[in-house]
Amino acid sequence: MSRTATAVPPQGTPLRRHGRTKIRYRTRGLAWAFMAPLLIVNLLVIGGPGLASFFYSFTDWDGLGSANFVGIANYVELFTSPAVLSAIQHNLIWTGFFLVVPMSMALLGAFLLSRVRRGQILFRVLFFIPYVLATIVSSIIWRQILSPTAGIGQALQGIGIDWFADTNFLGDPALALGSVAFINNWQWWGFLLVLFLAAMQGVDPALYEAARLDGANAFREFWHITLPGIRPTLMFLMLMTVIWSFLVFDYVFILTQGGPAGSTDVIGTVLYRTAFSENRAGYASSMAMLLTVISAAIVLGYQLLRKKLKWEV
Amino acid sequence: MSRVSEVSAPATTRSQPRSGARPGRGRRTTGTNTGTGPLGWFLLVVLAVYAGGPLVVFLFNSLKSPAEISNSPLGAPTEWRWENFITAFQDANMGQGILNSLIISVSTAVGVCVIAGLAAYAMTRLDLPGKNNWMLYLLVSTSLPIQMFLVPLLTWWSTLGLYNSQFGLIVIYWAIYSPFATLLLRSFLIAIPPQYEEAARIDGAGEFRLFTSIVVPMVWPGFITAALVAGLQAYNEFLLAVTFIQDADRLPASLALYSFQQNLTPNWALVSAAGLIMALPAIVIFVLLQRKFIEGYTQGGMAN
Amino acid sequence: MSKISRRVLRSAVVAVAASSLLAGCAGAASSAETVTYWAAFNSKDTQKTFQAEFIDAFNESSDDAQVKLDVKQWSNIGSLTDTAVAAGRGADVVFSPGPSSALGFASSDRIDSLDSFAKEYEWEKVLEPWAYQASLVDGELYSIPTGYGSIVMFYNPAVFAEHGWTVPTTAAEFEKVATEAAAAGMIPVGAGNSGYQAQSEWYLSAVLNAAVGPQKLYEVLTGTAKFTDPEFVDAMTTLKSQIDKGWWGGSANSYFTNTDTDMFTGLANGKVALYMTGTWSFSSAGSYFGEAAGNDADWNWAPLPALSDNVEPGVYPLAIGTSLSINTVSKNKPAAAKFLDSLINDPAKIYNYMAETNENPAPVVVEESDFPASLDERIARLYKDIPKSSNLGYASWTFFPAATDTYLYTEFDKIITGDMSPSDYLAGLQKTFDGELAAGKVIVPFAPTAG
Fold this sequence. Notes:
Strand content of chain A: under 5%
Strand content of chain C: 5-15%
Number of strands of chain C: 11
Number of strands of chain A: 0
Distance between the termini of chain A: 14 Å
CATH topology of the largest domain in chain C: D-Maltodextrin-Binding Protein, domain 2
Structural class of chain C: alpha/beta
CATH architecture of the largest domain in chain C: 3-Layer(aba) Sandwich
Number of helices of chain A: 13
Shape of chain C: globular
Radius of gyration of chain C: 23 Å
Helix content of chain A: over 70%
Number of domains of chain A: 1
CATH superfamily of the largest domain in chain C: Periplasmic binding protein-like II
Largest sheet of chain A: none
Number of domains of chain C: 2
Helix content of chain C: 40-55%
Radius of gyration of chain A: 24 Å
CATH topology of chain A: MetI-like fold
Distance between the termini of chain C: 62 Å
CATH class of the largest domain in chain C: Alpha Beta
CATH superfamily of chain A: MetI-like
Oligomer: heterotrimer
Largest sheet of chain C: 7 strands, mixed
CATH architecture of chain A: Orthogonal Bundle
């Protein structure tokens, strides 16, 4: 905490400013040179096709033939389509889930683990392995665990707990979205845990000692020292979580393809179906533009918040 | 890169920020850690069961037949079909596939580190105009769905002669995995006070030399982290790989996960076996790197 | 000129990049000598057999043209081909999952008319008339169908004997078996769309053909009748009431988690009474029954029963699973055509290949004497019956255009959950179809021959 939040910025900022006045002309060209590789690959792979998508979003392109300009018809359809509107809702639910569930689990696990010496590596590796697995593999595993005929519900029934005996996690439209999110969480939270765990080791132990002398319990230590100490990591990952939550595609596509009855449709799956099953690439491009606008809005909102709270990240 | 750091980074410069960055490590390990109570251990075990239980199902799957997976999804295999691993390995030509995957992942990881490292340095140390806008640009460019770009990208790659080559695929990975790595490395660099380079700068060292010999070694663990994340993503990527490479003997191992059919239904037993084979190298690499990986965050703490 | 500059560019790239990565960068599309062909197979063995009997055999007999097979997966061959062809690349021989997709390539000039080759090789005589007709776009041949099948009703004879059932042919018989199976705690009719949403259209194609009938479907596909007509509303309403009784897949929720594998496993162990699905399952059914699956069960099939009193029992909805065309950018079109011809010009060879692999054959005119003795009797029966049958119908994935087809199986979920009424569903279907019919995206179906 001392290092991250207080020590660096006061030192760093003036020094940088000082350096800038001296070496401005030397480094401006150099700055661009250092950015050049990123810019070149980024514009080539993302920027260029992104512009093409922007153009196609105003056409009726079918993905193959010629494209005819249709004005803003795609955008009108976008904002009046029940499928898209319900997909946006699902993305919002997804965002909420991922801001809360994996974050809390990872914070809890990392905090507990940070206080463990023996066996920490074992836990750390075990928690991280799911992140290494390919999406399709973890999807198969969980499809079986959640099987309505011989899955976890029946296994629990076998030992006398029949809470889930009649639950069809992926087949019930009311539960499917949550189930898919939960499956994705299995793969995701361990990754967060490892990042949090690392960040926690950067928190100055002297602060814990002081707190302990004041008689603080573990929860207070977590709340008053750990959490503020890893705030930059936490905020960065929360920002990425929100952006990634609007991009979610593969788990939903593999597990439910947006079904049952559209109950797990997110923008990613609607976009994919529109572009590749219905062959309406122009309309799908307008969905891609929507994703861009949403994430730009999120980032701008974050930057405003940051300015207001005077954070450095 | 490691060669450069060994040769030219003065030992003192390297050790300074390290010892500065972790003022209390020694104290911490020797006494102040209170450990975890019974409740803490209980919760850890619950989390371990949550993480590990499904892995057991995974292992069982890879040893069953498809019909048994359908009949008894959670039980242990009645007959342990170790031959699934041989079938999967041979039928999907996974030896070649894993070799290709390693070439692609390592090239991706190295390239992403170079690209993102340079960019992060420019964003934090050099006089780059509009710094906040760069962050916006990078974050937004991670939010574009790549599926929409396949057709224009394929047309360009074809014109550039990059289609159907591993290099062409790697360039795409560089582009899509660099923004996250740049933001990550940027947060590491911000955490390091610039006076370490100032001395060298006044001595007249060029920026590139400063970057390679002083800055890179200081945030080396950050590079390990960025490399691991980018490499893993490239390792498991599938859609771009099959779109941009046509020759079977150049395709990565992730293809194997889609190549076992039982009429229109995938053969989940072989898919699981292939998935396990594929995961092993990645797990080994994580185990080898994980201490560095953790240090990566410790060092930079993704801090500001 | 452009060729030279491309080469210059390519060598520049080679110069700056690691050479090992670029070892094979040059020349992916067709060179003058090689015809490239992308295909997917049900198993490694099938692939090997195909390679030996069709690719290697062709290459040996051909002096100049050589075919290079690139193996893809069923899950991605369609989208890979779409992407590559849209970008002006792709193999010389273009894969489509049926004539409707080929129509899309044809109308954006991505594939060539095959008319001149069709005359040269007399493909109109080689192919079954209905299949030739379905492959025409504005009267010109644009694709060659190389695999066809139908939808039939799979059952387990031992389970039928145990319950004293006879194979249903009429709606009343079907309902009797379903009612008794439900009472016995079985899933009366296997169904589910877990893992592959489009599975729903297998069942919907069965229901539409068997409850509404080919004649009415033909009228809809040619624009003279509508999906909103009472026959369709009745069929969907009946289907919905059967779903509500738990006949299709057990229950609404389990419909969404049943897989195709589950249904065949259920047939084998007596948990599923009937399963109406595509004849591509002939190639895999064996793995769920008998020694391979560790049980003593066996499977058989019967034509679809009539699901209403207006339709003659035993309709065969026809489906073309693979159509092949020639890429407009191919540099070796005559050779590609010669290869296409080699895939369909020898019925005995095609049926022999089927006997070895259980793969669907091309819809070629065939004599019963061409059927090898080693061909499974159950498979032979289908392919002897269809040419003789006058009750041929239309599988949705072959005869419906893309957006209509997608609507058919995605929105059907809402019928199951009760979020949408059959008439609203059919109105939406008709609306989507109207748009595509007007845009020229519907292939002209063969005329039904039954009354």
